[in-house]
Amino acid sequence: MLSEFGFFKDMQNQIPADGVHPYSLVSQLFSDETDKLRFVFVPEGKKIGYEENKVFIFPVGSTLIKTFAYLNKNGPMDQQLLETRLLINTNEGWQAISYVWNEQQTDARRTIAGATIPTSFYNSEGKQIDVRYRAPNQNQCKECHQVNKTMTPIGPKARNMNKNVEYQSGGMNQLLYWAALGWIDQNLQSTSMSNYLDLDATLEDRARAYLDINCGHCHIPGGSADTTGLYLNFTEKDREQLGIYKKPVAAGRASGNLKYSIVPGHSNESIMLYRMRSLDPGIMMPESGRALADDAGIELIKNWIDKL
Amino acid sequence: MRSLKLSNRFFIASLFLSTSVFSAVQVIQPSENSYQDIQEALILAEPGDVVRLTAGTFYLKDSLSLDVSGVQVEGEGMNQTILDFSDQQSGAQGLSVTSDNVTLQDFSIQNAKGDAIKVKGVTNIKFLRVKTEWTNGPSSENGAYGLYPVESTNVLIDGCVAIGASDAGIYVGQSKNIIVRNSRAEYNVAGIEIENSYYADVFNNLATNNTGGILIFDLPGLPQQGGHHVRVFNNRSVGNNTDNFAPEGNIVGEVPRGTGIIIQANSDVEIFDNEIGDNDTVNIAVVTYGNETDDQTYYPHPKSIQIHGNEFGPTGYNPDTSKGELAQILFDLSGGNMPDIFWDGLVPLSQIIFGQPQDEKMIITNNGDGSLLAIKPIGFMLPYLEPAILDINEFDGQISPLPKVEFDENF
């Protein structure tokens, strides 16, 4: 059971134990509009390594804890904790295990083959939405978290963490907070990625942030979608590799009878948007981790392609 | 924090401790929980274990995956053990495999929403008597690939059947050391396709009722390209006259109905002792990659191609000019008198002027009364020359047999 780790003082309300700290990402994965509660545990006295544009190098024993929930802040429905995923850095590398919450919301049980949770929630616009939520199985964790056959966290990169977070002791920039804990140095000289929902950022920055965090963990050299040479990670610079006038290679019917991944100025002729809109498992992208369409993301990528 | 650290370490150790020493056979029967049962077995299996699926139909709503090395997944026969994905709700494949030394045998995957079986980035994979099928016949709504190993080394496909894929029934991509034998591909757009791959033997197969029977392709912009050393022999590629039903945008969407074998780009390809006939458009086409690309490292022309000892049946009697340009060009140049073998004749400009290096020239010999049409690009440039070569004897020459593909099949 999840409670056996002792990560939480209060499981149901997700109050972390001492030494377990909340963290947050600037841009985050859609995952059927779930709210994500993230926590990190680093063994006492250990430091976190840093390389620009890479995931932080956590010491062995570190654990990333991520609870997926519908908090239902915009509707008359109780919050629902769905699953909690752990990434534990062991001597043999990162291991992924996931736990599905019981109906009483008191604890979560380990799952091997994942779970299907039919439920409904209130979205940010206060609309009630039904969803066949899928907690992934262990292999699906690897699909996204493996690069060159090595498990790795995805989110905690400095470029995606430069923001304020509410701690028990008050609000603070989380990179400064980590530095105050002695985990990292004060000034990392990192680039910063935009929050793709931030309308003040440029369209280009927002679109590239969205593609990086929603697609770039698989669509990256060495990632599980590298077979077709479509690379959507933040640092990719080649236009064809990014999908511009790139012909599909193994898409089959997921091409939607369209010729290119991205046709600048013509989102409706772009396979990328077609696959983002689809709910058909043989067509949709990402191919796991969502059962709903990400309307905000679709709108963003549509505008970006139309103005390319 | 001391207490958390200690309990943590203890608990983590217990989570990842493996206790089994002996290989085990886990038998699974169809049930209400088929997905859960099979997927848990595939995750908890240890190297050396067998996951056996009994006869019957397993109805699955989510895709299955295997990531443990050395596991054998077996059914009780390709027509007895059926994994049915007609009501699939999530996952882009029927089954995906990402671990080494895996054997898949004696079952069938039906109506996957995407690819039937995808195997990515592994060393040593065997498909024995496995069937992949879309049961409603050729349709652009069918998944792209049936058997789909990619980025893998040592791939054996033996005694398999692939039906109804909207791209390729048996597709091996970006791989090395490949054997496809004793298999049947029917009612796919491409029956058997070897793409961007090195060292492949394709023999004793039947490709029939596809749009194109056997395709040896190389495409730009991919992690592995420059396909070479492919032998295609003792196959029957006959009656591949199903209208192209590939969704547009896909490269095989340009294949005309009624094509026996196509070689596109690639070097060192040997096509011999095959029976190729009853194909509406052409028995063998050797062509250059025709689309634009920014990829500077890509070589779009076929070279060092050898075609010998093949037996040709009727062809070209009903060419499909609706897909791509191949059939139309061929029809115009031949005046309707369609050949068995077509070569588009395209080579780099320097070779048009100075000729091809000797070891890159195409050799065509000993193909009975087979006929040929090869475009002569210089004939287009200089109007007083003929635009095409029709004399097959111009390509006569000594065959340099390519080496056999071998690897240890008893992994």
Can you give me a brief rundown of this structure?
By secondary structure, chain A is an alpha+beta fold. Chain A has 5 helices and 14 strands. In chain A, helix 3 packs across helix 5.
Give the topology, please.
The complex is a heterodimer of chains A (about 300) and B (about 400).
Chain A: E1 8-10, E2 15-16, E3 20-23, E4 35-41, E5 63-70, E6 80-90, E7 93-101, E8 108-111, E9 115-122, E10 128-135, H1 138-145, E11 146-147, E12 150-151, E13 164-167, E14 170-173, H2 174-180, H3 203-214, H4 271-277, H5 295-306
Antiparallel strand pairs in A: 1-2, 3-4, 4-5, 5-6, 6-7, 7-8, 9-10, 11-12, 13-14
Helix pairs in contact in A: 3-5
Chain B: H1 2-16, E1 25-28, H2 34-44, E2 50-53, E3 56-59, E4 62-66, E5 72-74, E6 81-84, E7 90-97, E8 102-105, E9 108-110, E10 115-120, E11 123-128, E12 131-133, E13 145-150, E14 153-158, E15 161-163, E16 168-173, E17 176-181, E18 184-186, E19 190-195, E20 198-203, E21 206-208, E22 212-217, E23 228-233, E24 236-238, E25 259-264, E26 267-272, E27 275-277, E28 282-287, E29 303-308, E30 311-312, H3 326-334, E31 341-343, H4 349-354, E32 363-365, E33 372-375, H5 377-381, E34 388-389
Parallel strand pairs in B: 1-2, 2-5, 3-6, 4-7, 5-8, 6-9, 7-10, 8-11, 9-12, 10-13, 11-14, 12-15, 13-16, 14-17, 15-18, 16-19, 17-20, 18-21, 19-22, 20-23, 21-24, 22-25, 23-26, 24-27, 25-28, 26-29, 27-30, 28-31, 29-32, 31-33
Antiparallel strand pairs in B: 33-34
